[in-house]
Design a protein that fits this description.
This protein is an alpha/beta fold. It folds into two domains: about 220 residues, Isopropylmalate Dehydrogenase (3-Layer(aba) Sandwich), CATH 3.40.718.10; about 140 residues, Isopropylmalate Dehydrogenase, CATH 3.40.718.10. The chain contains 14 helices and twelve strands. Strand 6 and strand 7 form a beta hairpin. The longest helix is centred in the N-terminal third of the chain and has 19 residues. The protein starts with a strand and ends in a 5-residue tail after the last helix. About 45% of the residues are buried. The mean pLDDT is about 95. Bound molecules: 3-isopropylmalic acid (IPM) and manganese (II) ion. The site of manganese (II) ion (MN) has 2 residues, from helix 10.
Length: about 375
């Protein structure tokens, strides 16, 4: 298989974690005889610095021509602390989502037994947690009309949805539920918001075609609590853009490290894969960031291409590193390994290039960072 991939390393730790994923994808390519062609493009803070535009046209064109996009992370502190700036790194990402019509953001939430102690939740709440969030990504309050009055004293953001926008992601979420535990929870605020009532009406309608999927409806305030007290009740969680943004960050800490979780953003034609963590600028350039969220985004990309065995090879390699204690500082501050070492170990495992266990430990130890 020959695939063209646009790579957008972005800001902060984005370039470092992305580099490791490219190593891993190259190892997969070599082992399974695929050719992955990478085109590097700019977006975010680095694009503003180099071109004045958070999303240069060249990047958009490359993404349109590619089979998939791999994104690192975007955002820099100097933009965060100044709300009056007109040009911001995030605009690049939002525009790209809209340009590529990436309407479904899919964020799996799972746990690793060896990392349970890192979770803010208790062991009894963690066992069996395995759900997936389907977040609508190109509509709602993110993209509705924004206004600020002339005096700069009043502002509004319109939350707007139509039936088509709701149905297309709902269909994907129902199809996913059918392949999983056959449960779908629509999270909304239908006791207050008209848009939420439209979501409920549409989802109720669609559910008639998925008789084997049990549907329940939950207000977002309750859902935010249920994610903490009883996360294993969820299978597929479907929600609108803003609620999904908030709930997916909340859910991400269940696993014990934000650095572990991948995501995909899918449209009819295009797809983008990125770790769910941000650009973590404090760690940039130190080779300490956790590359696993990005590497597992590579696994999601393989699945998107229909390469399930390849995806499994990546996941098996990641499981091997985690269960052998080859982890970055966010997971084990005492015995931690460099970002680049983890990437190498995962790639070598995929290439069957792992020497004797003791040797590998020594090799990795030689590169360990104890900070
Ligand atoms: C995310 C991010 C973005 C969002 C930001 C960077 C615009 O938080 O992907 O969840 O709010 O969608
Ligand atoms: Mn977010």
């Amino acid at each position: 298989m020959n695939k063209n991939i646009t790579v957008i390393p972005g800001d902060g730790i984005g370039p470092e974690v992305t580099r490791e994923t490219l190593k891993v994808l190259n190892a997969v390519g070599a082992k399974f005889h695929h050719q992955f062609n990478f085109t590097h493009c700019l977006m975010g803070g680095i694009a503003i610095e180099k071109t004045g535009d958070p999303l240069p046209q060249e990047t958009i064109d490359s993404c349109h021509k590619s089979d998939a996009v791999l994104l690192g992370a975007i955002g820099l502190p100097k933009y965060d602390n100044n709300p009056s700036l007109k040009v911001r790194p995030e605009q690049g990402l939002l525009k790209l989502r809209k340009e590529l019509q990436l309407f479904a953001n899919i964020r799996p939430v799972s746990t690793y037994k060896s990392l349970h102690h890192l979770s803010p939740l208790k062991e009894k709440q963690l066992t069996g947690v395995d759900f997936i969030i389907y977040r609508e990504l190109t509509g709602g309050i993110y993209f509705g009309k924004k206004e600020l009055n002339e005096a700069g004293t009043e502002a509004s953001d319109l939350c707007i949805y139509n039936t088509d926008e709701i149905s297309r992601i709902a269909l994907l979420a129902f199809a996913a539920a059918q392949k999983r535990k056959k449960k779908l929870t629509l999270v909304d605020k239908a006791n207050v918001l008209e848009t939420s009532r439209l979501w409920r009406k549409n989802v109720q309608e669609i559910s008639k075609n998925f008789a084997d999927v049990k549907v329940d409806y939950m207000y977002v305030d309750n859902a935010s609590m249920q994610i903490i007290v009883n996360p294993k009740q969820f299978d597929v969680m479907l929600t609108e853009n803003m609620f999904g943004d908030i709930l997916s960050d909340e859910a991400s800490v269940i696993s014990g490290s934000l650095g572990l979780l991948p995501s995909s953003s899918i449209g009819e034609v295009n797809a983008l894969f990125e770790p769910i963590h941000g650009s973590y600028p404090q760690a940039a350039g130190k080779d300490i960031a956790n590359p696993i969220g990005s590497v597992l985004s590579g696994a999601l990309m393989m699945e998107y291409f229909g390469l399930n065995e390849e995806a499994k090879a990546i996941r098996d390699a990641v499981d091997w590193t985690l269960s052998n204690g080859f982890v970055t500082k966010d997971i084990d501050p005492v015995n931690s390994y460099f970002t680049s070492t983890i990437g190498e170990l995962v790639s070598n495992y995929i290439s069957n290039d792992i020497p004797q266990h003791s040797n590998i430990r020594n090799m990795a130890l030689g590169q360990a960072t104890i900070i």
